[in-house]
Amino acid sequence: MTAAFHASRDKAHLLVFTDWRQLPSVTDAVQVAGWLWQGVNVWHKTTSRPRPNAFRSDAEYVVWATKGPLGKQDYKTAVYPPGVMKASPPRDRVHTTQKPVEVMEWLCGLLPSGSTICDPFMGSGSTLVAARNLGHRTIGVDLSQQFCDHAVGRLKDHAR
User: Fold this and answer.
1) Rounded distance, CA 36 to CA 13, Å?
2) What CA–CA distance (Å, rounded) separates 79 from 106?
3) How far apart, in Å, do the first and last CA atoms of the chain sit?
4) Inter-axis angle of helices 126-133 and 145-157, to 10 degrees?
5) Please, what is the average pLDDT of the chain?
6) What stretches of the chain show up as alpha helix (H) in DSSP?
7) What pLDDT score does 159 carry?
8) Closest CA to 94 of 150, 54, 55
């Protein structure tokens, strides 16, 4: 979180997926690193693994923070995305934590067109596809050559 903070411009956005177990430590880590915590949004999955005699784990949480305050808002051009997105996980997943492009478009929609979006854990490339669909520039990073190759192929398949 600290490295991302130092590498980001003022007013940059940070969005981190987590589940209920790590939510407290993620929000703490975000704030300790210097980010200004803006809230938590919910991706409501339509499927999940059942838990006998327990609540279904059918949600992931998106911790949202910015590098400094957002500043003065122009209410005439502001966007008002919902705080909850309901979408099914991809059926043809190639990565265990792969997100649907629809969910990533919901999140990338917060930013003005032409923003640069960096995904330091790009996995299958869903964020890169969504960002490009919305007119953003992208930077994707992953330690796995397999996932880098997959993301490049996916971006070529979704060429405009």
Assistant:
1) 9
2) 11
3) 33
4) 30
5) 91
6) 2-7, 23-32, 101-108, 126-133, 145-157
7) 59
8) 150
Higher-pLDDT residue of 146 and 157 is 146
Please say if the pLDDT value at position 160 is more than 80: no
Q: Which helix H or strand E contains 15, and what residues bound it?
A: strand 13-18
Interatomic CA distance for residues 45 and 140, integer angstroms: 25
Q: How many CB atoms lie within 10 A of CB 102?
A: 15
CB atoms within 10 A of CB 46: 9
pLDDT at res. 46:
86
Provide CB contacts within 8 A for 36, sequence distance 6+: 65, 66, 67, 68, 69
Q: Which residues are CB-neighbours of 63 under 8 A, at least 6 positions away? A: 14, 15, 16, 18, 23, 26, 27, 30, 37, 40
Q: Is the pLDDT of residue 48 over 60?
A: yes
Cα–Cα nearest to 138, from 116, 110, 158, 111: 116
Whether this prediction's pTM lies above 0.70 is answered by yes
